[in-house]
Specification:
Radius of gyration: 18 Å
Helix content: 25-40%
Distance between the termini: 20 Å
CATH architecture: 3-Layer(aba) Sandwich
CATH topology: UDP-N-acetylmuramoyl-L-alanine:D-glutamate ligase
Number of strands: 14
Number of domains: 1
Strand content: 15-25%
Largest sheet: 8 strands, mixed
Length: 311
């Protein structure tokens, strides 16, 4: 599905270490049942997810001048992601994250942002010199807010479709949200953006409406196994997901956002792109490790056609 518009991603890269087990209490040591290592970072994952679905994709991220940073450049080149804007930073490590998976595949994550924390608004401005409109600008919050905010502001001013995946979630000024065409929180992130507890019992539709009231044009709230809710200027639409056997939920949101951006870049409507995003997220949870789980066009088409995820 080759898109006519380019996807520009401003985001993070990091390495991830997974272990299956329970979260230990202070001072306690537990034995896990498995260990894995892989590539991560929301910006990188989403860029790869979009490129794997045929989008022309360019990435700005920060990596260390270390083994992991060099491996990242090799990964992006192999996946067809333009990484010429990526910054390699001396004396700063590449981001690393620790992920604990429980027996049902739910995850708990802690990260050290490393080189991602040194991305600046000036870095974004240099990357933006390559942007062409129409296009898609996709960013997240694993980088400094100033960098993400500058990307959204420039993208909005130049007529790009701006997408903010607000993860990890935090309260944001209204002036930043006003530059967002499509906000893609999950249910807990949506509530945190409003200053609520992550498990607040307000209805999802009410939460989405309140977020739109802060200046966001569209809210696309991901609902896990229940699909996604689109809240726009005129109506709310529920998009169903696809039933699958869950192995690891870690990459679901990144698969969703990458497929959403790729779909919009190819000329799909928002609802059509969200439907493909829910398919991508469903496929991603059927495997361990995020990058290997990101689907290609054949997998998306098969799931949407037959309801069965290819392995």
């Amino acid at each position: 599905m080759l898109g006519s518009e380019e996807v520009y991603v401003v985001g993070s890269y990091g390495v991830a270490f997974w272990i299956v087990g329970e979260v230990p209490a202070p001072g306690e040591t537990l034995l896990g049942s498995g260990f894995a290592f892989g590539n991560g970072g929301k910006g990188s994952n989403q860029a790869i997810g979009a490129a794997r679905l045929g989008a022309r994709c360019s990435l700005l991220a920060g990596v260390g001048a270390d083994k992991f940073g060099l491996e990242a450049l090799e990964l992006w080149r192999a996946e067809g992601v333009n990484c010429s804007a990526v910054r390699q930073m001396a004396e700063t490590p590449t981001m690393a994250g620790i992920i604990i998976l429980d027996a049902v595949g739910e995850n708990r994550i802690i990260t050290d942002p490393g080189a991602n924390a040194r991305l600046t608004a000036s870095d974004v401005e240099g990357f933006a010199d390559t942007w062409k409109s129409p296009g898609i600008l996709l960013t997240q919050l694993e980088i400094p807010i100033e960098a993400a905010a500058r990307a959204l502001a420039i993208g909005k001013a130049r007529g790009l479709t701006t997408i903010l995946n607000p993860a990890p979630a935090r309260a944001l000024p209204k002036e930043i949200l006003a530059d967002v065409d499509i906000l893609t929180p999950n249910q807990s992130e949506a509530r945190i953006l409003l200053g609520l507890e992550a498990d607040d019992r307000q209805a999802d539709a009410e939460v989405a409406a309140r977020l739109r009231g802060l200046g966001v044009r569209h809210v696309v709230m991901t609902l896990g196994a229940d699909g996604a809710l689109i809240a726009g200027p005129d109506e709310m639409t529920k998009i169903a997901s696809y039933p699958v056997d869950v192995v690891d939920t870690t990459g679901a949101g990144d698969a969703f956002n990458g497929a959403l951006a790729a779909g919009l870049a190819s000329g799909l409507t928002l609802a059509e792109a969200v439907r493909r995003g829910t398919a991508a997220g469903a496929i991603a949870v059927t495997k361990k490790l995020v990058v290997p789980a990101l689907p290609d066009e054949r997998q998306i088409s098969e799931l949407m056609k037959t309801g069965t995820a290819l392995r």
